[in-house]
Amino acid sequence: MLGVAVVGTGRMGADHVRRIDEVISGARVAAVADIDADRAKHLADGIDGATAYTDPAAAMDDPAVDAVLIASPGPAHEAALLDAFARDLPVLCEKPLTPDAASALRVLEAEQKLGHRRVQVGFMRRYDAGYRTLKALLDQGTYGRPLMLHNKHRNADTPPGFTNAMMINDSVVHEIDVTRWLLDDEITAVRVLRPAPSGNAPDGLGDPQLILFETAGGQVVDTELFVNCGFGYQVSCEAVCESGSARIGDDHGVFVNSAGRWGGSITPGFVERFEDAYDRQVQRWVDATRRGEVEGPSCWDGYAAAAVCEAGVLAQATGERVAVELIERPALYC
Ligand code: ISE
């Protein structure tokens, strides 16, 4: 049984604690850490054998801990990752790896000093059944070479304080990762188009936005991001290839025929929409860790996403096409 320390017990952290406790096999919650001592204690009290801490490093030193799940806010990730590296513990780190490319690069360098991969980054869409089917189709080349992706990413609403930069760093970061993964290529430039904002957008938020990526292989990817659409959470992706196109994400939920009408349902939020993906992501991490292996999105993927986000935030602010600067991919991640 893998003893996991969950660092950060906000919305995602608490959900992962429940998941490890109730859904996943082969792991148990051995420790929880949160700067809010009461929140950590409350969670730990509900789980047999779990100890509450306020200091992530102290949780990692608990003898019952074999691995770490980091779900604290992004700015706290670098310190927690370096603490885990100092103890050579396997890590599942919620996205973003870190909030900017410079700190992601420091993490990348620290992991290389260990000489082996230790981190799986929580880009959970890679574990969604629809995205996995699409990835398999593209890898098999069933419809020829992919030329374009059309993404749709809609949230019902945003939490207070959600900013334009967060539209890129928190939301579009997922399309950045799936683009790189599905097309197996790097994003080289970003543009952001900003239509007149919806009357329902909070003050100062340019919502919706259209984000365009170019890849090294010459593909173009568009993402409609509309984070206050008001009617639910929708994520879809269509790959347009040389001799066909394939789309996933439209039919999530129940499809009903009744009273002379037909239609499906829309999930309220990302936790419901991607519940299976989160479960599969954590189970795969536990299984790989118990085999002594590391798989899934790497620190390189976290760093590349951070670099594209930086270019995206600049493109959003300036209206310009911004090129993405990446270091050469280190051997550990090839
Ligand atoms: C949120 O942080 C997420 O990670 C969701 O997956 C994303 O859809 C949402 O837009 C973000 O705010």
TrEMBL record:
Pfam families: GFO_IDH_MocA, GFO_IDH_MocA_C. Residues 3-123 form the Gfo/Idh/MocA-like oxidoreductase N-terminal domain. It is an enzyme of class 1 (oxidoreductase). SUPFAM superfamilies: Glyceraldehyde-3-phosphate dehydrogenase-like, C-terminal domain, NAD(P)-binding Rossmann-fold domains. The keyword Plastid does not apply. Keywords: NAD, Oxidoreductase. Coiled coil: none annotated. Residues 135-324 form the Gfo/Idh/MocA-like oxidoreductase C-terminal domain. It comes from Streptomyces albospinus. This is Inositol 2-dehydrogenase.
